[in-house]
Amino acid sequence: MRHPLLILFAPSFLLAASWVAPKTPDGQPDLQGTWTNASITPFERPAELSNKPVLTPEEAAAAEKLAAANRVDRPPKPGDVGNYNQVWFDSGTKVLSTRQTSLVVDPPDGRVPVTAAAEAQRDYNAAHNADSYIYMSVWDRCITRGMPAGMFPAGYNNAYQILQIPGYVVILYEMIHETRIIPLDGRPHVSPGIRLWNGDSRGHWEGQTLVVDTTNYNNKGSIGTSAATDRIKGIPQSEALHVVERFTRVSPETISYEVTIDDPPMYTRPWKAAFPLTRDEKYRIYEYACHEGNHAVENILSGGRAQDAAAKAKADGGAK
Questions:
Q1: Distance (Å, rounded) from C-alpha 158 to C-alpha 161?
Q2: Alpha-carbon span 144 to 193, nearest angstrom
């Protein structure tokens, strides 16, 4: 049974029932093209909107106006090395076309049901970020954005190119330039002893919907790697993680994307995010060479060692 919030959101971007989705030469519903999901809609619903799943048109316009006013460059505070300026960001200027108040749509309050243990692990890793690379985000280390973390909107590079060939769907992610190959031939998941950063994906068609089932995760990644996921950034994944995605082409310019995440050690119940992907054939995806000229990990760790040395010198001086 589909969640009632998803039914509520759908009419704002579905076309008339007379529209028929195109097919690939081998008969698959055609999802091909370049798609984007940049949006100012928050990942989780703000507390002040806890009982409001959808914005009015006037509220959406006000949110977009406020976001535009905040999209300015400001000098960093003392001690802050700064960040990119606005020309490098591409986080969108609009709320989602559905006007939903968060990407998370289930539970009904739009909040991810995180366990206390998962939050404690997130906080511990953040506090020890400069102690060792093992506590750092897998995105900071240029390993992966994660899956489905890589499908969630981020500050920039929010594009996906979908290619279909007989027996497979292929998704190229602009961020970190990953390519995900999803077989459709009914093969089983790999052996339980094989554990992967982004899991083992298997796809099948349910009518016009591509359903992708992913298991066999390792316990080294994270379900949210972008700051745009806010509270969920750094929540770890366990080997029990099970992800089910649904891609449905609902108009010439729109794919409805839904993802259900179940990871009992990390969440008290399964939860769901949903949002549209918008076709943009003018968008050009260039290589994202994450490691090229990237000294972030080295600099963070060297800064941590400098802080350790300063603390030790202060302690030694006080002991004399």
A1: 10
A2: 21
What is d(CA 31, CA 163) in angstroms, rounded to the nearest whole number?
A: 8
Phi, psi of 280, rounded to the nearest 5 degrees: -145, 90
Q: Which helix (H) or strand (E) holds 305?
A: helix 296-319
* Helix (H) or strand (E) segment spanning residue 61: helix 57-70
* pTM score: 0.90
* Each residue's pLDDT tens digit, 81-136: 777 787 778 888 899 999 999 999 999 999 999 999 999 999 999 999 999 999 99
**Residues, the chain:** 320
Contact 275, 99 (CB under 8 A): no
pLDDT tier at 242, thresholds 50, 70, 90: very high
**Residue 85 burial (C-beta neighbours within 10 Å; 0-12, 13-18, 19+):** exposed
DSSP code string of 136-190:
S-TTTTTS---TTGGGS--SS--EEEEEEETTEEEEEESGGG-EEEEE-S-PPPP
SS3 13: coil
Q: What is the pLDDT of residue 13?
A: 43
What gap in Å lies between CA 212 and CA 189, rounded to an integer? 12
